[in-house]
Design a protein that fits this description.
Layout (H helix, E strand, L loop, with lengths): L2 H11 L13 H4 L9 H14 L6 H5 L2 H9 L6 H20 L9 E7 L4 E6 L5 E6 L13 H17 L9 E6 L3 H11 L10 E6 L18
Parallel strand pairs: 1-4, 4-5
Antiparallel strand pairs: 1-2, 2-3
Helix pairs in contact: 7-8
GO molecular function: structural constituent of ribosome
Organism: Monascus purpureus
Protein name: Small ribosomal subunit protein uS11m
Length: 231
Amino acid sequence: MNPQFLNSAARTFLPSASRQFYFRIPSFQATRRLSSSKNVRSTTREMEKELLSTNPRQTAKEASSPLSEVTKTMQEEKPRSPSVSRDYFRMAESLEAEMIRSPYSDKGPPHHLHVYSHKHNTLLTLTRPNGNPMLSMGCGRLGFRKGGRSGYDPAYQLASHVFAQIQEKGWLLDIQRLELVYRGFGPGREAFTKVLLGNEGKNIRGLVCRVTDSTRIKFGGTRSRKVRRLG
């Protein structure tokens, strides 16, 4: 039979639901030559590539989670590039330069040795970095009484005795840095400095990192005591 006759008969007598099985248009005729849309074959190939690239064991929840890709990249072992070693060398050079500029930056806070000297007595106090006292001693501990506690000689003996106690108790192993805090301008100030720069303080003066003065300065305030005059 003539195929044209069959097609015309199917259009006339068959229902519209079954016409799609008889009148199929090829895909190359359905798409326009100058169309802006993507080709059907290219899209299908891209979909096939995506399906093949995904892990079949991976569930839908893991695929949708944003952390799955991050964990994959963290678990993958990547070879180290030579730029990483260069960065480490640059970091080491910068740290070395920083240590040269500030040599005490990598160490802990310093201990403090307070020197309180006034015209009647001299007191020496060694404290930890947090302020807790380790040793506190005055000229009265050496047998000087009343007016005998003032003067250059008692302060000199006190400073040499304190330095000997620090060495005997083994505190030089704990003290890495030492800060001297002066207070007052009595005769014991000069005596302590003389002992520190002498033979008695040769093991301690190398630990000194800072010297400060905490002498009280009065701005106004109460009236001063009357000056004592003899004769």
